[in-house]
Amino acid sequence: MSDLETVIRTEIEDLHVFFVDWFTGAAPKEQLETSFGVAMDADVVFVSPDGARLNRTDLMNGFTSGHGGNPGFRIAIRDVKVQREIGDLVLATYTEWQRGAVRSGQAENGRFTTVLMTRDAPHRWLHVHETWLPEAEQAAGPYDF
User: Fold this and answer.
1) Do 18 and 31 meet the contact criterion of CB atoms below 8 Å apart?
2) By the 8 A CB rule, do 68 and 103 touch?
3) Quick one: which of 18, 20, 54, 12 has its CA closest to 36?
4) 83-112, pLDDT tens digit by residue?
5) What is the Cα 7 distance to its own chain's centre?
6) Whose CA is closest to 115, among 15, 2, 3?
7) 14, 34, 16, 3: which is closest to 113 by C-alpha?
């Protein structure tokens, strides 16, 4: 694994640790802006696995309303790969596995995610696109986390 891939993996994993802490209520409300808000670019575009297109305001509102609403929530990040380096940007992919998700339709689910972010810290997430993994792959897991 390259040094850049290690840095990007850490960025992705750390943000998802915050997601778990936020939705389980372990993170204080003041942390939304400092952990999530600063990472999301003002013009970020997030495409959900269902195809909904959200902007930064939509994301912040959704997170605000979800604080502490999912005490059994867990995430595992796997298969992080830097696909392209384009100037000061990085295009990366990963799989995200969720357990105990109350807002995702299925409590246990998996998604393939593509993210475009700035290469250097502090990283800014510019575009995120999630796609449901095939049903058979989701059913098989892994949910061993």
Assistant:
1) yes
2) no
3) 18
4) 999 999 999 999 999 999 998 889 999 999
5) 15
6) 15
7) 16
| Identity of residue 107 | A
Residues 6+ apart with CB under 8 A from 86: none
Q: What are phi and psi of 138, to 5 degrees?
A: -65, -45
Q: How far is 94 from 112, CA to CA, in rounded Å?
A: 6
**DSSP state at residue 75:** E
Pull the structure tokens for residue 105.
Answer: 């339709």
Identify which of 13, 86, 8, 101 has the alpha carbon closest to the alpha carbon of residue 49: 101
Structure confidence by residue, pLDDT tens digits, 122-139: 999 999 999 999 999 999
Q: How many CA atoms does the CB half-sphere of 100 hold within 13 Å? A: 15
**Which tokens go with 128?**
């995120």
Which 8-state DSSP code applies to residue 121?
Answer: S
Where are the extended beta strands (E) located within 1-145? Answer: 40-47, 53-54, 74-86, 89-99, 109-118, 125-132
